[in-house]
């Protein structure tokens, strides 16, 4: 069995081997260039010494090769560092429960929904929708409540199948709709991957969210 730690170590070892091979190749070229230039200077004809402009050109080439070697070393170290951090970060997310406003997974057990109605509201309704966005239940709730336990039943009381659902809290002042805000729930992370700008988490509900949407984290249940 390969653990996340072993995976990180293997990836770092492979990256390090590749970078060392590249550095060795460039360093070898650098040493060869230095040897040729030194030999040329030692064996030049005193009566017809090397042209100063040609000598300056070769010195410039020498400097470029030296900078290439140094840059390669720095980039290799940076790649190793970033690679290790990303793998460790990804491994740490998998299996955790994260709180987001994304759709949640219902498996037959009650789901805790979190939301807060505006202070001006005098009534509130929790609206449950299936994965296609179809409304399946409306539940009147107290405006002072911040957490709600959803049993997973339809308006007629029949149990709903396992799957992905979403919830919205509609807040009213009389008959006026003040807001319709997404409700947050905890979902387990089943996969984590590096996106273009952030780590992306695939939730048990099938939703993919960036870590920036996470408002809470707890040990997986």
UniProtKB/TrEMBL annotation:
<keyword id="KW-1005">Bacterial flagellum biogenesis</keyword>
<dbReference type="InterPro" id="IPR005648">
    <property type="entry name" value="FlgD"/>
</dbReference>
<dbReference type="Pfam" id="PF13860">
    <property type="entry name" value="FlgD_ig"/>
</dbReference>
<dbReference type="Pfam" id="PF03963">
    <property type="entry name" value="FlgD"/>
</dbReference>
<comment type="function">
    <text>Required for flagellar hook formation. May act as a scaffolding protein.</text>
</comment>
<feature type="domain" description="FlgD/Vpr Ig-like">
    <location>
        <begin position="106"/>
        <end position="174"/>
    </location>
</feature>
<dbReference type="InterPro" id="IPR025965">
    <property type="entry name" value="FlgD/Vpr_Ig-like"/>
</dbReference>
<comment type="similarity">
    <text>Belongs to the FlgD family.</text>
</comment>
<feature type="region of interest" description="Disordered">
    <location>
        <begin position="1"/>
        <end position="23"/>
    </location>
</feature>
<protein>
    <recommendedName>
        <fullName>Basal-body rod modification protein FlgD</fullName>
    </recommendedName>
</protein>
<dbReference type="GO" id="GO:0044781">
    <property type="term" value="P:bacterial-type flagellum organization"/>
</dbReference>
